[in-house]
């Protein structure tokens, strides 16, 4: 019986091997001839009413450019509402009116633009079934010429070059649509005298002799308290005392600092900045030089500072030079020293404007 069983196993193994080795077949699949299934083809094409009736085609075109006109009106209305319904400090009614009318204008601009584009595609653009064959993309002269022909065909099918009213109103709507955002961003700028960005960002609360204190309790920091590898979030002495006064947030936003301690031999300092640190302790602005996000993530092993908004990275060992990301310049360094009681103090204000780069900056 044992011999018969072994023979059966050998036979099964032989059959399996023969099955695997069969040409045109694989384990777990069936071999199907290429012509076994007939291609059903595309269903009969059903023309749209705009393809059959020229009057309805013109009506659809009028609907599209009317919607684009409405989008322009919505964008202009949002800008006008921003100026016609200003926000009065302490008056929540003015806030509601401002948000309501600006929101209605932006909603109309975006909704009309979207509906007009969709209606244009469904009612007026070419309505023919086609099959796009996939092929390797090559940058040869032939493929570039083909791309030009495709754009030309798309222009003819969409009617973009031929339907001037639709084209012009679409361009107008796209130009007008960002205007409310421009008007709203203007409200973020400070009002009153001395509002030049260079003047505002060139001076902070830091001055000679100002103690470095912890954020947010305002406790002064001794050099002995800063251990190797640690990072302190720092504000100027006295800022905590004006926590509830007007302008406190603006002053804090400009003056926030990150304090770190490295081994002195790890710092690659230029001659003019060797006196800006104290026994491996360095202080840099927390305001990212990209768009102003707080740079608050410190990697102890690599000595890199990371901005969480857009992943800009700065090298603390090399004056916070940019090593990755969209930031355009290093973080400004705050010159520091130690007073007679061992507390860390600022030698002066920052020597350059803090915050994002801007065209007025020297």
Map the helices and strands.
Elements: H1 2-21, H2 49-52, H3 54-84, H4 92-123, H5 141-158, H6 164-176, H7 179-186, H8 197-202, E1 212-214, E2 231-236, H9 248-255, E3 257-261, E4 281-285, E5 297-299, E6 304-306, E7 313-315, E8 321-324, E9 336-338, E10 344-346
Antiparallel strand pairs: 1-2, 2-3, 3-4, 5-6, 6-7, 7-8, 9-10
Helix pairs in contact: 3-4, 3-6, 3-7
What does this structure look like?
This protein has 362 residues and is of the alpha+beta class. The protein has two domains: 54-127 and 143-186; 199-346, 3-layer Sandwich (Rieske Iron-sulfur Protein), CATH 2.102.10. Helices cover 39% and strands 10% of the residues. It has nine helices and ten strands. It has a four-stranded antiparallel β-sheet with strand order 1-2-3-4. The longest helix has 32 residues, at 92-123. Mean pLDDT is 83; it is low at 1-26.
Supply the key terms:
alpha+beta; 9 helices; Rieske Iron-sulfur Protein; 4-stranded antiparallel beta sheet; 362 residues
CATH topology of the largest domain: Rieske Iron-sulfur Protein
Q: Separation of termini? A: 97 Å
User: Total number of β-strand segments?
Assistant: 10
Class of the largest domain in CATH?
Mainly Beta
Helix content: 25-40%
Secondary structure class reads: alpha+beta
Describe the structure in brief:
The chain is of the alpha+beta class. It has helices spanning 2-21, 49-52, 54-84, 92-123, 141-158, 164-176, 179-186, 197-202, 248-255; strands spanning 212-214, 231-236, 257-261, 281-285, 297-299, 304-306, 313-315, 321-324, 336-338, 344-346. Helix 3 (54-84) runs antiparallel to helix 4 and helix 3 (54-84) runs parallel beside helix 6.
């Amino acid at each position: 019986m044992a011999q018969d069983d072994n023979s059966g196993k050998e036979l099964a193994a032989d059959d399996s091997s023969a099955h695997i080795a069969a040409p045109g077949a694989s384990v777990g699949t069936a071999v199907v001839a290429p012509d076994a299934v007939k291609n059903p083809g595309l269903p009969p094409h059903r023309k749209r009413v705009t393809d059959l009736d020229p009057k309805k085609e013109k009506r659809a075109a009028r609907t599209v450019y009317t919607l684009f006109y409405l989008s322009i009106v919505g964008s202009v209305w949002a800008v006008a509402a921003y100026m016609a319904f200003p926000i009065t400090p302490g008056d929540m009614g003015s806030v509601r009116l401002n948000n309501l009318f600006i929101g209605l204008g932006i909603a109309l601009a975006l909704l009309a633009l979207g509906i007009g584009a969709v209606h244009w595609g469904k009612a007026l653009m070419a309505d023919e079934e086609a099959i796009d064959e996939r092929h390797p993309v090559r940058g040869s002269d032939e493929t570039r010429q083909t791309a030009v022909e495709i754009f030309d065909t798309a222009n003819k099918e969409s009617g973009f070059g031929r339907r001037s009213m639709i084209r012009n109103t679409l361009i107008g709507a796209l130009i007008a649509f960002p205007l409310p955002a421009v008007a709203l961003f203007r409200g973020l700028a400070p009002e009153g005298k001395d509002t030049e960005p260079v003047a505002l960002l060139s001076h902070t609360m830091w001055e000679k002799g100002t103690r470095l204190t912890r954020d947010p309790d305002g406790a002064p920091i001794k050099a002995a308290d800063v251990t190797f590898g640690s990072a302190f979030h720092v504000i100027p002495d006295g800022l905590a005392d004006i926590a509830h006064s007007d302008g406190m947030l603006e002053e804090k936003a400009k003056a926030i600092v990150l304090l770190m301690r490295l081994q002195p031999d790890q710092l690659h300092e230029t001659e003019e900045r060797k006196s800006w640190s104290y026994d491996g302790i360095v202080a840099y602005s927390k305001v990212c030089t990209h768009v102003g996000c707080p740079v608050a993530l410190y990697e102890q092993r690599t000595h890199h500072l990371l901005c969480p908004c857009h992943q800009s990275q700065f090298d603390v060992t090399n004056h916070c030079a940019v090593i990755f990301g969209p930031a355009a310049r290093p973080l400004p360094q705050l010159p520091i020293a130690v007073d007679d009681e061992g507390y860390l103090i600022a030698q002066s204000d920052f020597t350059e404007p803090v915050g994002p780069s801007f065209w007025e900056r020297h």
